[in-house]
């Protein structure tokens, strides 16, 4: 994984983990140990889903750049759908507090998306291909009048 991708992943995962830590503390105070467990699980799910999605999206951008935008939209929709399905699956669980899980899942998702947008806005991504290193001059394509 290139250093840019690692930096992007770190700059999105660290704020999300910090949000999960705050959510775990608040949930522990409000709902006890089961609340803290729900908040931690919600944060881990978001970091896992979004992290895997980011890796897949970066590989798509590198290998199939013409599919990048469509893949990004499809990936985010699939991630949100999977998160909703996971919430529906765990709705009746007694292993952890579901409300703490749901709220930490929501908060961590929002923080991840905002942090990712911030990282990409601050990144210096070249949008013009640099000249070739061979030193050849480009051929003229227009008419010579």
Class per helix and strand makeup: mainly alpha
Unreliable spans are: none
Q: Specify the oligomeric state.
A: single chain
Rounded mean pLDDT is 84
| Gyration radius over CA | 21 Å
Query: Biggest sheet: strands, sense, closure?
Result: none
Let me know the number of strands: 0
One letter per element, helices H and strands E, the order comes to HHHH
Please give the count of helices: 4
Descriptive overview:
With 145 residues, the protein is mostly helical. Helices cover 74% and strands 0% of the residues. Helix 1 (3-31) packs antiparallel against helix 2, helix 1 (3-31) packs antiparallel against helix 4 and helix 2 (33-63) runs antiparallel to helix 3 (68-89). The radius of gyration is 21 Å and the shape is elongated. The N and C termini lie far apart (50 Å).
Compact overview of the structure:
By secondary structure, the chain is mostly helical. 74% of the residues lie in helices and 0% in strands. The longest helix has 31 residues, at 33-63.
């Amino acid at each position: 994984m290139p250093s840019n991708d690692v930096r992007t992943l770190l700059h999105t995962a660290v704020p999300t983990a910090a949000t999960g830590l705050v959510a775990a503390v608040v949930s522990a105070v409000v709902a006890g140990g089961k609340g803290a467990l729900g908040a931690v699980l919600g944060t881990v799910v978001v970091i896992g889903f979004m992290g895997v999605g980011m890796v897949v999206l970066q590989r798509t951008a590198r290998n199939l750049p013409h599919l990048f935008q469509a893949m990004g939209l499809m990936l985010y929709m699939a991630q949100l759908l999977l998160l909703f399905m996971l919430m529906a699956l765990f709705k009746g669980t007694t292993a952890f507090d579901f409300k703490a899980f749901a709220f930490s899942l929501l908060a961590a998702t929002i923080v991840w998306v905002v942090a990712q947008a911030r990282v990409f806005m601050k990144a210096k991504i070249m949008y013009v291909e640099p000249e070739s290193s061979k030193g050849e001059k480009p051929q003229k394509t227009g008419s010579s009048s």
